[in-house]
Structures are given as structure tokens and as C-alpha cells.
Amino acid sequence: MSRVTYRGQTVIITGASSGIGASFARSLAARGSNLILVARRVDRLEALADELEKTHGITATAIALDLTSPTAGPDLKASVDALGLRATSLINNAGFGTFGDFIDEDPARLEQEIAVDISAPVQLSSAFLPDIIAADGGFLINVASMAAYMPSPRMAVYGASKAFVLSFTESLWAELRGSGVTAFALSPGATSTEFNAVVGTDDATAGAKMRAPDQVVATALAHLESRNPGPSVIDGATNRLSTKLIRLMGRRSTVTMMYRMTDPTRRSNSKVAAKK
Ligand SMILES: NC(=O)c1ccc[n+]([C@@H]2O[C@H](COP(=O)([O-])OP(=O)(O)OC[C@H]3O[C@@H](n4cnc5c(N)ncnc54)[C@H](OP(=O)(O)O)[C@@H]3O)[C@@H](O)[C@H]2O)c1
After folding, report:
1. Radius of gyration over every alpha carbon of the chain, rounded to an integer in angstroms
2. pLDDT for 136-190, tens place per residue?
3. How does pLDDT run across 242-263, given as a tens digit for each residue?
4. By C-alpha distance, which of 125, 169, 173, 167 is closest to 149?
5. Among 20, 169, 210, 243, which is most buried by a count of CB atoms within 10 Å?
6. How remote is the CA of residue 196 from the centroid of ligand 1, in Å?
7. Which residues line ligand 1 at a C-beta cut-off of 6 Å?
8. Edge-to-edge, what's the strand order for the sheet holding 10-14?
């Protein structure tokens, strides 16, 4: 029997309009959880909510929210309260990346990246953890990345954001032990979602074997259901092995390798203009 009782949960999933978030929604609905789905593309959320309610007899509520808002956490809490809902679990999944040398990046876009990838998970954790702790038996999953385990030249802000998420969440794991809440960071590697389309290039994942969102979610739920879940989990055996090797390589060699691997001029079909 699963360590986790999914039925009766009300799980907030950010970034549920596509990719890993939508897969979390489908998997949790199939297990009997009620859902609060959050993203900007509310038409997609509503279609998914309708489908999951009909298929699984759960309640799914769509909330449109731009997580770049500096008040995203309190705003979402106010919306959830106004609907008479109470979250028992939270999955901070929404996120996006930017690709290119830092010096060439649009500072406004980087601010949005930091807001969605760092500030939103912190704010939402702060806003909802009191209810999640009170519910007893809930979970907090923050989606980090393989990028959290290594420097990410040409995705400097993204990599640093995910390193933040990993560190932040592992600390919460320790603080929440004994609270009845299972907290951990989930780190996918290259996964076939809309992520690269939003980045605008697949240079960062060139040559990587893509995992499916359902595989990432299966890893997360297996970890959640395990007898004594640790503070973080990496999806995929190859990705787990890579992080071990990177630790052995040392930081200078790792960042040099990553810089070479993500060089757009190495690829004839790169969408990023070759640097002179
Ligand atoms: N795919 C990969 O290779 C990969 C690898 C490692 C980690 N990750 C992480 O996995 C998580 C899920 O990404 P994905 O791969 O599933 O990508 P995706 O298909 O692009 O999904 C990203 C989700 O985030 C939401 N989002 C983005 N900006 C938002 C904003 N300002 N406000 C509200 N929601 C916003 C999007 O919804 P709207 O556009 O509708 O707002 C969408 O639902 C992210 O944290 C990502 O960093 C992905």
C-alpha cells in the first residue's frame, strides 16, 4: 500500500498548462487527488480540468496567474481562499529558461526568469505551507533541474535559479521532517516538453536523450511513495550517473565542458547565430 494517500488531497500544480505540470495533473487525478491548476494559459487549464473531472470524478479548478507578479504568492492564496478551497499539497513546477551569453541577455527577461523560477516557489511555499502542515500527510515538490548540479554557461541565470531551488528545497526537507509534510526537489534532465520552444533553441539539450514528462512524474511519485524519501531526486539513471561523474570531475573541468557542449557554432542547424 502507498505511503501517501492521494484521495482527499487538494494539490496546487503551477505550470499545469503543458509538459511536466500537465503530466503531474493527469497522474494525480488518476490517483483521486483534487487539483488547483495554475498558469497563464487558462484556456488550456480549463480544458484539462474539464477532462480530468469527467474522467476521474475529481474536482479540478483552473486559476490564471502570471507568476512574474511580485505578489504571486499572496495573490494565489487569496484566490484559493476566495474559492473556499484549502491546499493540502503544492507542486512548484512552473519555470522557463533563457539561452545565450549573459552579456547579451535582456535584463527584463532575466528578471522574469528569476521571478518565476525562484521568487514564485519561495512565495508559494511560504503562503501555502501553513495549510499543508495543518492538513498532515501532504507534500511539497519543487521542480529543480539537472542544471542545479552544475554551472550552466549560456544559461547562467537558469542554472543558478535551479541551484537555488535545490538548496532551498533540501533545507525545507530538513526543517519539515516530523511535520507530516514530505518535501523534496525533483530534478529532470532533458525532457520533451515545450521548454525548448520557450527557450527558443534546443542548443542546451543538443545530443541529450529526451525523457518523457510521464517518466519524470513517475520518478517523483515513486520517490514520494518510498519509505523514507530523501531531500531530492534526479529523474533517469543516465542523469543520476552524470551528476555523480560531474562531482568527480571538479568545477573547472565541468564548466569548461559545459561551455563547449552548449556552443551553438558546433551545430550546423543551431537557431542561435554563430558568434564571431
Ligand atoms: N523540459 C526540460 O528539459 C526540463 C529539464 C529540467 C527542468 N525542467 C523544469 O521543469 C519545469 C516544467 O517545465 P516543462 O519542461 O514542463 O516546460 P513547459 O512545457 O514549457 O511548461 C512550463 C510551464 O510553466 C508555466 N509558466 C511559465 N511561465 C509562467 C508564468 N510567468 N506564470 C505562470 N506560469 C508560467 C507555463 O504555463 P503558461 O505558459 O501557460 O503560463 C507552463 O505550464 C520547469 O520548472 C523547468 O525549468 C524542465
Report:
1. 18
2. 999 999 999 999 999 999 999 999 999 999 999 999 999 999 999 999 999 999 9
3. 999 999 999 999 999 999 999 8
4. 167
5. 20
6. 10
7. 15-21, 39-41, 65-68, 93-96, 116, 143, 145, 188, 190-191, 193-195, 198, 205
8. 60-64, 34-39, 10-14, 89-92, 139-143, 182-187, 232-234
Give residue for cell 479548478.
61
> What cell numbers appear for 119 in the block?
521568487
Backbone torsions φ then ψ of 96, nearest 5 degrees: -155, 165
Ligand 1 atom closest to the Cα of residue 146 is 6
Are 7 and 34 in contact by the 8 Å Cβ rule? The answer is no
Distance 119 CA to ligand 1 centre (A): 15
Helix axes 251-261, 237-249, angle to 10 degrees: 130
Determine the distance separating the centroid of ligand 1 and the alpha carbon of 132, expressed in angstroms: 23
- Active-site annotation, residues: 158
Residue 30 grid coordinates: 488518476
Residue to mutate, 46, 110, 195, 239, ligand 1, most ligand atoms under 8 Å from C-beta = 195
Question: What are phi and psi for residue 231, nearest 5 degrees?
Answer: -75, -15
Q: Is 235 helix (H, G, I), strand (E, B) or coil?
A: coil
51-96 tens-digit pLDDT = 999 999 999 999 999 999 999 999 999 999 999 999 999 999 999 9
